[in-house]
Predict the structure.
Amino acid sequence: MGEVASQTLLKKGAEASLYLAAWHEKRVVIKARLPKKYRPAELDEKIRGYRTVHEPQLMHEAKKAGVPTPTIFLVDVKNAAITMEFVEGKQVKQLLGNISKKERQELCVKIGELIGKMHKHGVIHGDLTTSNMILGVEGKIFLVDFGLGEKNAELEARGVDLHLMKRALQSTHYQFAEECFEAVMKGYSAVLGAEEAGKVLEKIREIDRRGRYVAERREEA
Amino acid sequence: MKDPTEVCCLGVESTADDFGVGISTLKGEILANASSGYIPEEGGIHPREAARHHAEVADTVLREALSKAGIKPRDLALIAFSQGPGLGPCLRTGATVARALAAYLNVPLVGVNHSVAHIEIGKLETGAVDPVTLYVSGGNTLVSAFDSGRYRVFGETLDIALGNCLDVFAREAGLKHKRGMPLGAALEKLAANGEKLISLPYVVKGMDISLSGLLTAATTLLRKGECRLEDLCYSLQETAFSMVTEVTERALAHTEKKEVLLTGGVAANRRLQSMLGIIAEEHNARFNVVPREFATDNGAMIAWTGVLAYTHGAVTPVEESFVKLRWRLDRVDVPWVK
């Protein structure tokens, strides 16, 4: 990566480190999946390699479905590093608690629409948390971090994807998890149709029940 | 010997195969931690058989705990019991013992959440204050951290628990549960002699994991008989532990906490300890692992959590002391954590 002038660490995540760099006079993010010492090297290389190859492919697929994702510039499989567009904006995670209820509803409906578009196109994100959604300066919501995603149009995969969204809301935004998830499903339903969304919702309930110790949730459902 | 001015809490644990009685002072000094485990002739835990075992050993274990602590029943100020989650017949047996004791001694009764207790004993024994906890046992696999009044669940298994996955595989491989040598320990020993990493499904979904496919794949290979058992044990452990370690690291990066706590029965596994130690170090967090005695289900953790709950206003009237088989960790208020 000789073209990279300088790079500063933006965030050291669990799975990868994000660096802000200049590349051909553009501000870019380099996402580097560093080796994980805790797991055997051959397993580690397999996982990092697989995710580095699949993530850009899925981001591209999502884009085709009308879901904003950062543009990919370079994929360095050997070093498990992806160079992509730097998206200026705010993480939805930071926003959600600092906006009015109405704004929150609107934002979540939009997020649901994006998930719907993505699912309709057969793309599963695999890690739908509010940290992986960026509200760009132009008002577009970008989805990032497709490392755990897959191409899959099955009901089960859609259900798990949204189940994760629900769980992420419950653990990080428990004060308004319910209203947010309802709004997400509203947007989702608007794209996929009420019938399909209903099926997914039923699947989510089934996935909930498959987990451990969920009687109270079962009663609610 | 205990200070006679000090009053104690007795905790009864009986969520699964262990019947345990622990005694803690109100300051968190563990005076006794007695237990008796039910070991099935074959197969996994039969809930009714386990409950029968618990009923049979209850008085012996109680006596043992009281004698170890060097106290008389009248020194008890509080009775705590594991109210859930767990196996119905087992929970009910423990609850019955606890209700009888509380009524006889005329002291308050406190129902304790078993998962909360695993976290609290880990904190008490290691000095951890606000950790990201990986709680792994035969019945539970979850990643949790405290936020606003409760232990929130950041990640968990979407199907079976880690200990369950390892135990079922070990039984399929013909390993036997012996006293002092649980199935997981037997598997760990074999895994230590593994050399070749066999490719098995690695399923991480966000901060959740799925282990049932991994178990099926490993047992299928086992039945085919083409792989060395040591290699299979090694590969199963490496794959499953890498998955839970990955999600724990995700929770650690997400919450930015400065401590990691490993608790529950599978916490006794050295390999898992070393993996979690590595991610803690990478995130400049202090790594804590619950001592082996308190890793498996035990009465001491129930006694101590009972103290915490009671001193923060919780009591469980007998009419509300029914067991809760599926009582989730994130449904419990923990006002003693700030």
